[in-house]
Amino acid sequence: MLVGHEVRRVAILGGTRIPFARGMGAYADVGNQEMLTAALEGLVQRFGLAGARLGEVAGGAVMKHSAQWNLVRESVLGSGLAAETPALDLQRACGTSLEAAILVGNKIALGQIDSGIACGVDTVSDAPIVYARDYQQLLLASARGRTLGARLRPWLGLRPRFFKPVVPSVNEPRTGRSMGQSTELMAQQWHISRAAQDELTYESHRRAAAAYAAGFFADLVVPYHGLTRDNNLRTDPSLEQLAKLKPVFDRSPAGTLTAGNSTPLTDGAASVLLASEDWARGRQLPVQAYLRYAKAHAVDFVKKEGLLMAPAYAVPMMLKDAGLTLQDFDYYEIHEAFAAQVLCTLAAWESADFCRDRLGLAAPLGSINRAKLNVVGSSLAVGHPFAATGARILATLAKLLATRGGKRGLISVCTAGGMGVTAIVER
């Protein structure tokens, strides 16, 4: 081991986030650093961490400007934590902040640090927009010039097309398909109906609205920039209204994914506090739950598998590590990138052919009790700021275990690039 002689338990003390907002809306005039700083400030205030030096703050963003190369560190410096708290930027697409929690958790488990924060943020309202590579090369060539003539000569090649902005692509470079188009193919492969997707979406909004009404999110969500709750949430969802929406990724009669049963482009930030039991006890902070197991996996989505199917592989690998079955959980927090993605994953675990041929199992993993799935809503209702979702889910699950009972919860997050990040949280 790098430090300790024993593996310590990793305590989850709780989390805070700002309300998630639809892109180009409430947070259109702020960026990643402002939002992440606000989420961290909320955590500092909630747990009395003003001036405290933590062992690590790890997190990141998927969509960020090149000038934000030290985004997490800059946010830490504005959060109220001690300036001596180190910070780390990382990125694993939609699994970023869950991966950050695993990294921080590993350091705590090995005794390298006693406390840390995992966090994530994303904005589509302040997306980095650049210009053509030809224009970039012209500017660099001019900068390299040793004489005035050498600096001016490249500008003779300036063309109007150089000023056409290049916005970040949402398509997979290897396939050219968007995540929605790829998920539409998954839905067709697994025979996932439009009605089933709309039903899952309806339940996500209904449960999230009920959780807000019951005060569940009161200490998890801190007001920010005029919002007190996620503004994608529908407090009176309707299956009839969902059924009227037209498909957006496949507009043929075969299309099933709509703007309703797909997550919207979202701005937001989230954070979660992790620590050793001794550190928590020393600050008189109650432990909500423990981060016990984790697994990341990837699939060959170009040749063999659906883009967002990696969690279907990662979870059984993690279950083997833990000596558990799929049914040994009180809560299932499966990130709702699309309703179809959740349903494809569940169908795969129920499939004898998939479990035998792809996972090498003698029998299917089986089904789960849907009443235990995303019990306070998930991404379809509250939104999905890419890098923030993992921290949101981890903090939500820890609070569920601490306040509603139960022993164990499962987290599953799919990501771009055919990857998935999963975790097990125990009380």
Summarize the structure.
This protein is an alpha/beta fold.
What would you say this structure looks like, in words?
The two termini are 26 Å apart. Strands 1, 2, 3, 4, 5, 6, 7, 8, 9 and 10 form a ten-stranded mixed β-sheet that branches. Helices cover 35% and strands 15% of the residues. The longest helix has 20 residues, at 194-213. The protein has two domains: 10-128 and 266-282, Peroxisomal Thiolase, Chain A, domain 1 (3-Layer(aba) Sandwich), CATH 3.40.47; 179-216 and 252-261 and 292-426, 3-Layer(aba) Sandwich (Peroxisomal Thiolase, Chain A, domain 1). The chain is built from 14 helices and ten strands.
**Structure class:** alpha/beta
Order of helices and strands: EEHEHEHEHHHHHEHEHEHHHHEE
- Globular, elongated, flat, extended or rod-shaped: what is the shape? globular
Largest sheet: 10 strands, mixed
CATH class of the largest domain: Alpha Beta
Report the average pLDDT across residues.
97
User: How much of the polypeptide forms β-strand, as a percent range?
Assistant: 15-25%
- The CATH topology label of the largest domain is Peroxisomal Thiolase, Chain A, domain 1
Distance between the termini: 26 Å
Number of strands: 10
Percent helix among the residues? 25-40%
CATH architecture of the largest domain: 3-Layer(aba) Sandwich
The tally of structural domains comes to 2
Which stretches of 5+ consecutive residues score pLDDT under 50? none
Tell me the CATH superfamily of the largest domain.
Thiolase/Chalcone synthase
The value of Rg in angstroms is: 22 Å
How large is the count of helical segments? Answer: 14
